[in-house]
């Protein structure tokens, strides 16, 4: 298996770990409503370590995606910066737990909230920026338009999430998360299918 295929698989496993934990927590924590409670609230209380592990899976997946894409493309500054901010934002969101609504606001909670918002909006921009880059490569042109579409819809879903009333903000966030994960899995697939095979050195 080529080096770049291993990178693609490492990224895939990180994102699948998050999706597994994301789904599992809805069964392990029935006290949290999928309509109004944020996903981050699963990291506070029972099985909180598991949700934190899931967030770190996203960070690992994002890091390997960045490495894999930079091996394939000469990327623009905006595409690298925005995707890197997604990675950094999710790392901060994993390290600093959110505030539970019934408790008072803390510095850690504010850092978590700001980092999460920064991550989500930058990922939407990154999808569009990478879409233009994908369009320059014949092997990636088939997902270039899809990437731009994902980006536009991600930003729309982010706005919907941000503007949603508290009673439905949890659901809006979950829709955004699932949509973003689909793009990340799409890129994982592209990295695996178009893996670079380096010539052997003597």
Task: List the main descriptive attributes of the protein structure presented here.
202 residues; mainly alpha; 72% helix
The multimeric state of the shown protein is: single chain
Mean pLDDT: 92
**How many strands appear in the DSSP assignment?**
0
Domain module count: 1
- Supply Rg: 17 Å
Weakly predicted, low-confidence segments: 198-202
First-residue to last-residue Cα separation = 19 Å
Please, how many helices?
6
Which structural class matches the secondary elements? Answer: mainly alpha
The H/E string reads HHHHHH
Largest sheet: none
Using the alpha-carbon principal axes, give the shape: globular
Question: What percent of the residues sit in helical stretches (DSSP H or I)?
Answer: over 70%
Assess the beta-strand content as a share of residues. under 5%
Structure write-up:
The protein is mainly α. Helices cover 72% and strands 0% of the residues. It has helices spanning 3-28, 48-72, 77-95, 107-134, 141-163, 169-193. The protein is globular.
Concise structural overview:
This protein is mainly alpha-helical and about 200 residues long. It has one domain (about 5-190).
Task: Record the SSE blueprint.
Layout lengths: L2 H26 L19 H25 L4 H19 L11 H28 L6 H23 L5 H25 L9
Helix pairs in contact: 1-2, 1-6, 2-3, 2-6, 3-4, 4-5, 5-6
